[in-house]
Design brief:
Layout: H1 7-15, E1 26-27, E2 36-40, E3 46-53, E4 57-63, E5 67-72, E6 81-87, H2 96-103, E7 115-127, E8 130-139, E9 142-157, E10 164-175, E11 191-202
Antiparallel strand pairs: 1-9, 2-5, 2-11, 3-4, 3-11, 5-6, 6-7, 7-8, 8-9, 9-10, 10-11
Amino acid sequence: MLFRLPAVCAAAVFACFIPVAASAQVVTDSAQIQPGYYKVEPQHTQVSFSVLHFGFTVYEGLFSGASGTLQLNPQQPESSSLSVSVPVSSVMTTSKKLTEELRGSEWLAAGQFPRAEFVSVSVKLTGRDDALVTGNMTMHGITHPETLHVHFVGAGVNMLDKKYTVGFDATATIKRSDFGIKMFIPYVSDEVELRIAGAFERQDVALSTNSDDM
C-alpha cells in the first residue's frame, strides 16, 4: 500500500530538510561587514597543510583549536589586524603513527614548542574581497615573515548561536626549512601548502591588548 502526502504537506516536509544556511542572512559583499573586534571561533576554524610525499602523492594533515583576535575595519581594511595561535599538538593525519611522529622532536617538537602563531604587520587589498596579509609566523622557536592570500567568504548572524560571524579563506606557501624543520628534505617537500578556514565572532566590547586568548 502506498502512502501519499497531500502536495502542501509534502512541501512542508521537504522544507524541513533544507540546510539551515540556505535561509541565513549572509552577506558576501565585504563592504557590508560589521566593523569591530572579533575572536576566533575555534569549532569552525581549521588549518590544513599538504606536502609532496616522495614525489608520489600530495599528503595532507590538519591543525585545530585555534585562538586569537581580529580587529576589522571594512572601510579602511589596511588598518585591520590579525593575531592567531594554533596548538601544535592538535596536528592530525590519517595515520596514527605519522601523527605521533609529527608531534615528536624530529618534526614539530610539540612538547618544546607548543604553539604556532601568526601576527599581521600589514594588510593590502588586491581586489574587492581579497587581500594580502603579511605578518610574522612563529613556529618551532623561529619567527619568519610570511604572507597570507585572504578571501572574504561571508558574514552574518549564525542562526545556531545568534552571534555575528565573519568567515575568510586563506592560503600560503611556506618553507618548513625556514623554521628549522628539515627532516627528509627533499624526499618530503620543503614547501608546505597551507589553507586556513577562519571563522570569527564579533565581540560586544573591545578586547584588551593583554587578552589571555593567545
